[in-house]
Task: inverse folding
């Protein structure tokens, strides 16, 4: 049951676990405990659940605040895929993002991120894009 803080909350007498925050980590933990028969409460301070899985809309465009793709889920034997299958009772379906799953455009230059580890290794990154990564990843 999802309840807003604006409503009169209906609380149980007892919870086996109270989880602070409702990102994917918390929701996965809550789902695992719940599937084991535990009574779980998840508390979220934002007006909606999901943490970095949110999207928001501005001027006709939709923006991801965090997650925009997840790797390895095409492999049914990957640990992350098994976890998603388990917590969703095999209800979750995944969409392939195509050969080019991400694209960086700087001025008139375009850098494609192509599917597959080997393709990615073979990708020739120019000096300018390496510098960009340096700037982005620096604390
Ligand atoms: C820009 C960006 C892009 C990303 N892209 C990808 C991607 O493409 N693929 C990928 O796999 N990962 C991506 N990630 C990483 C991924 O989004 C995070 O690793 C993951 O979502 C973190 O989940 P989490 O459960 O740890 O926490 P979060 O999603 O951060 O959730 C934490 C939640 O806890 C709540 N909270 C915090 N403190 C309290 C409190 N005191 N009381 C109540 N609630 C509280 C917050 O409001 C929030 O809802 C990206 C991250 C960023 C920032």
Result:
């Amino acid at each position: 049951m999802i309840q807003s803080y604006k409503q009169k909350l209906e609380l149980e007498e007892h919870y086996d676990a109270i989880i602070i925050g409702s990102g994917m980590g918390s929701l996965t933990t809550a789902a695992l405990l719940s599937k084991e028969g535990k009574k779980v409460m998840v508390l979220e301070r934002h007006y909606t659940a999901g943490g970095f899985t949110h999207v928001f809309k501005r001027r006709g465009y939709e923006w991801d605040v965090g997650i925009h793709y997840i790797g390895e889920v095409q492999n049914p034997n990957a640990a992350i895929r098994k976890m998603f299958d388990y917590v969703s009772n095999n209800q979750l379906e995944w969409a392939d993002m195509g050969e080019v799953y991400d694209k960086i455009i700087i001025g008139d230059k375009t850098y494609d991120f192509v599917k597959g580890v080997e393709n990615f290794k073979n990708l020739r990154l120019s000096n300018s894009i390496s510098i960009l990564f340096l700037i982005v990843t620096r604390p």
Notes: The helical segments are 24-35, 79-87, 117-122, 127-137.
